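Long-time lurker, first post.

We've been arguing in lab meeting about whether calcium ion would sit comfortably in this protein at all. Half the group thinks yes, half thinks no, and nobody has a model to point at. So I'm putting the question to the forum: if I give you the sequence and the SMILES, can you give me back a predicted structure of the complex? Inputs are below. Any interpretation is welcome too.
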Amino acid sequence: MGACAKDYRNQAEVYNNDFEQNNLVGISGGEIETFNNSKVLGRYNNGGFELSLTNLPEHDLIDISFDLYIHDSWEGNKPGQDDVEGPDIWQLLVNNTVYINTTFSNIVCQPGYFCDPQSYPANYPNYNNNPKSGVSNRNLPGACSMAGVIGGTSLYKISKQIRHSDKQLLLKCLDKLVQKNVADPKCDESWSIDNLKIKAIRL
Ligand SMILES: [Ca+2]
Ligand SMILES: [Ca+2]
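Top reply:
Settle the argument with this. Predicted structure of the protein with calcium ion, as tokens:
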């Protein structure tokens, strides 16, 4: 263990789901589909899910981690003339407090062109981050409008540790995607998650 490793008195894994068994216990708004040969929670466009956990062991912190897939052509902060294409906002809330409020830009950016920035890994509005900043894997196929296009999906490894001691935890992930110029917005841009793990940590 390195000098900087965190030495917790105890930590308990209270949730771990790779969705391969179609397990939606405790989840409302749950949808499962297959992406890249793995079952994922999603895809969503102007939607999301809530996970409710009860009877958590005594704890001081909650550690939430998961894979976030950003599918197809998100426009990041793009305001547009009349909010036609953006901003494309994604949020994470715990017990109704917003912990992540950001945007993603999933444009395949050609050299010499201006590409709409994204806020991630900062919160919205932040105009200083290029498309795919903080990405873990940029070489995944798109899901719908960019199906088969390598780079059409970006994987972000989200990890959030928050102060939390309630016995109940309500995790919400949702989007406020904007795409008014296509017939099928969910095909134009969507998101899903996989490998959702939650730990309760005692200090
Ligand atoms: Ca999976
Ligand atoms: Ca959009």
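For your lab meeting: The mean pLDDT is 94. The radius of gyration is 17 Å. Whichever side wins, do check it experimentally.
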